[in-house]
Predict the structure.
Amino acid sequence: MVRWDMFGRALGAGIAGILAGCGVAPGGHATAPGAGAAPQGPGATPSAQAAPSTAAAPSAPAVSTSGKPVGRPCGELGCLAFATPQAAFAKALSASPRVIALGEAHAQKDAPRVKSTTRRFAEELLPGLEGRVTDLVIELLTTNGSCGAAVERNVAERQKPVTEPQSASNQNQYITLGAVAKKLGIAPHTLVPECEELRAVTQAGEGDIDRMLVLIADATVRETEKLFASGDPKRAIVLYGGALHNDLAPRAGRERWSYGPRLSQRAAGRYVEIDLVVPEFVRPTPSWQGLPWYAAFEALPPGAETILYEPSPSSYVLIFPRSARAEPAAKAP
């Protein structure tokens, strides 16, 4: 495994060795990578242009007799509204999971200029896990150079249709996320594919994206299994990447793209899937509209609360509050 400090130095020096990550576009179409919203999962990209709703605006969250804020019921799919993302996140973790599998929709080049999902997690949610989490596995593929430069270049080239639409800052934000974790005493880890897996991608022809999605899921399971063997069973492991790989109930035909069922079994059910959603990223497209929480989300008016859906047991969608001010979307090159 590549040591994190060595990887960080390599990135700073501009050394090739980062193969990035790969996912799918909203709805699970393998056309735009790395971030992807997962079918039946929370990693969607909400749209600032969504039609306004006439529904009543959310009121302030209720407060329990203990003085702690609790979620206010706000609709279907177990919808709860919270005053802060931290409170919603705490609710999703209330069963004390051993594996916290977080999914995002990776920022795209033409997305509204608001704080990315990765930054929000690093700045707003990760600090609350200090002392409760031992490790953070990030969906960032790195290599140790043993597979041959030609193979690595080939894989990187095949990822371009997926990575080119993404924001150029995505990889750096993942590196920053690892650095933040390290300062909190949480050990960050990247994914190091086996040479055989990389060669399978290069030999897959039109199925190369499918092979890459399988590779990411398999590499995540491998890395997490190592941490299970050596870690503290009383503390959790966090997995962070595209909102396709963490699905507990992946769509038929896409089972191998997800590590969810395998790691849930390994954790004896102590597994929680949480998709993190920046509402300004969600768009009224068929892909997003096909997600189980989209209709309920669209019915809610914009507000300052954090919304938490639970479409199925141990599967959550956390929607951050809208930014106070969003700059116009950057034009695609």
Summary: The beta strands are 18-20, 72-73, 80-82, 99-104, 133-142, 187-191, 236-242, 271-277, 306-312, 315-319. The longest strand covers residues 133-142. The chain is about 30% helix and 15% strand.
